Amino acid sequence: MLPENAEDFRTIWLHPEDDGVVQIIDQRELPHEYRIHDLKCWQDGVEAIADMYVRGAPLIGATAAWSLYLAARVSPDPEAELKSAASALLDSRPTAVNLRWAVERVLQQIAASGTDAHLSAITRSEAEAICAEDIEISRGIGEHGLQLLRAISKRKNGATVNVLTHCNAGSLATINWGTATAPVYFAHQQGIDVHVWVDETRPRNQGSQLTAWELAANKVPHTLIVDNAGGHLMQHGMVDIVITGTDRTTRCGDVANKIGTYLKALAAHDNDIPFYVALPSTTIDWESRDGVKEIPIEERDAAEVTDIYGVVDGVKTVVRTTASETPVSNFAFDVTPARLVTGLITERGICAASEQGLLELFPEVKDGDD
After folding, report:
1. Residue 247 falls in the annotated catalytic set
2. Which of 127, 259, 318, 368 has the most crowded CB, counting CB atoms within 10 A?
3. pLDDT tens, 6-30?
């Protein structure tokens, strides 16, 4: 069951009665069924990431960290098991930088702990730390992004603030609160009249199945729209601000996010509507400068495009919508150039989508290092 208090919501946790089991929400079943899924070995974690039981860069990273914990519990050779697990995890999804970041962070902690260290305890502690930090990162994003929504509300004399978002960058994409939706939740809690236009986000419908579900659970006013309606809404003054999440952001401010984000940015630019990207610093790829050339874009199974999952007369059903011989291309992400991004909302504040802007918030980052 969902917790009554939003503060208590979690997307991944250690089983309260069995520390050999990590539990997640099976997001493939939403919004029709809220189902808990058990990860009992690191291979289960790889499957959960690759087959999208879990989604969203921060949650993918956390799942990778917990998968390494499960690998470390294996005897008699946990070091070999960790090596195999790390390799498989890094191959499971290529675009989200949090995956690599989390794996490397856990492995670095192991290396720093010496040969006599208890690998299970080290990996568990690091996975718990990654999750705890992510919650506070999302909270920081929410608090800074709230100022944007508060300013719009003031300018409109308290009238509804209309936010358009794409894909799911909510609680389900992180450990709690989310990135793009965190400012919305904070604004709603403070009594600001806020409404969210939710892109369905084909082909996996992560907007209609996930974002809409969690907004409804938090009683936030929202309306589901087809992906291509965003431009029309902007032309008619029905959108005040666009906020999306990101799976990877270059040090120069280019943003990789769910396919279709680039088109939203173009429409926002053409209609003089601010386009913000909410990102935890863990999604910044400090080694990359040109997102279009350097960010790997995942291509996924054609069935995600040809088949649609839903419920018919109470029964979960998959329906094919295309002719069997139709060729399909299924790019999962696109890159929005920094020039189209009004600003980046991070846990440390809001900055320009540029190398200078990011380094002003993260001055400890040296050239080429993270």
Report:
1. yes
2. 127
3. 788 999 999 999 999 999 999 999 9
